[in-house]
Design goal:
Layout lengths: L2 H14 L1 H5 L9 H5 L2 H19 L6 E7 L5 H6 L3 E8 L2 H9 L7 E5 L13 E6 L8 H14 E15 L2 H12 L2 H14 L16 H10 L2 E9 L6 E10 L6
Parallel strand pairs: 1-2, 1-4, 2-3, 4-5
Antiparallel strand pairs: 5-7, 6-7
């Protein structure tokens, strides 16, 4: 899935099911009534509290002047980071998601949202952030794009800054491994045709609603981190990619220039 197609998928979801698209395993959180009762955004507060506790266990602290929420969606985690930072930037590929995030922002100028459709984060200057967080986002894009964004995370961090991001590693089931093998071996045009045909045969009418999943071996992710000026402080298996995937959360600290 190239970034143009990825943008179309998430714009479509942002226009039709923006809250469900973020927390797919809990449809009750996507209803307007539950949203008004703040249950949806409370789930973000709970997640960031768990992040803070995890960083504390590693001897790190969740605080600073500026944070980035990569793949912000409707701002669930962007707003949850606001108590810890002077400013939080949320960035997403889908304009429809960003518009919803802006409509429901309760933190004023403390939370700023951006649409970014490029395969880089050049909209932000180097060494601008103390903390970068990304969860259930990199898993939906081709590995070549996911790794380039990780490289951008390290460019954007201040020396000593922290990035915490999640990337699946590999599928567990035999059928899942076959799917992953098909993805790796078919040329992109044939794979796109395969996905569209499979989706139509499933009886679902809108192929734009398809969320594709991708994995990157943890050794490859680790090597990429160290090769781009980061130090891997912690790696923790998580369940965010679903029951058919082995997935990891990587905690990275940016090293000062010239330090290996």
């Amino acid at each position: 899935m190239d970034l143009t197609r990825l943008q179309r998928v998430w714009n479509s979801l942002g226009e039709t099911e923006p809250f469900w698209a973020v927390i797919t395993e809990s449809s009750s959180l996507s209803t307007s009534a539950d949203f008004k009762n703040e249950r949806f955004y409370q789930s973000g507060v709970d997640e960031i509290k768990a992040v803070s506790d995890y960083l504390t266990s590693l001897g790190l602290t969740l605080q600073g002047k500026r944070a980035l929420d990569f793949g912000c969606g409707v701002g669930r985690l962007t707003q949850a980071l606001a108590p810890y930072f002077d400013r939080v930037d949320g960035v997403d590929i889908a304009a429809s998601m960003v518009e919803t995030a802006r409509q429901h922002n309760v933190h004023g100028d403390q939370c700023v949202y951006h649409v970014n459709t490029a395969d880089n984060l050049a909209i932000f200057p180097e060494a601008a952030f103390d903390f970068i967080y990304s969860n259930i986002t990199l898993q939906h894009m081709e590995p070549q794009y996911a790794l380039k964004y990780v490289q951008e995370f390290l460019r954007l961090l201040k020396p000593g800054g922290i990035a915490l991001f999640q990337i699946p590693c590999h599928r567990k089931s035999l059928s899942g491994k076959v799917k992953q093998l098909i993805r790796r071996t078919l040329p992109q045009p044939l794979y796109t045709l395969y996905v569209d045909l499979k989706f139509r045969l499933s009886g679902l009418s809108d192929s734009l609603s398809l969320m594709e999943m991708y994995g990157i071996p943890q050794k490859e992710v680790t090597a990429w981190i160290t090769g781009n000026g980061g130090s891997l402080i912690g790696r923790q298996e998580d369940a965010y990619a679903g029951s058919d995937w082995v997935s990891f959360r990587y905690c990275v600290v940016k090293l000062p220039a010239g330090v290996n």
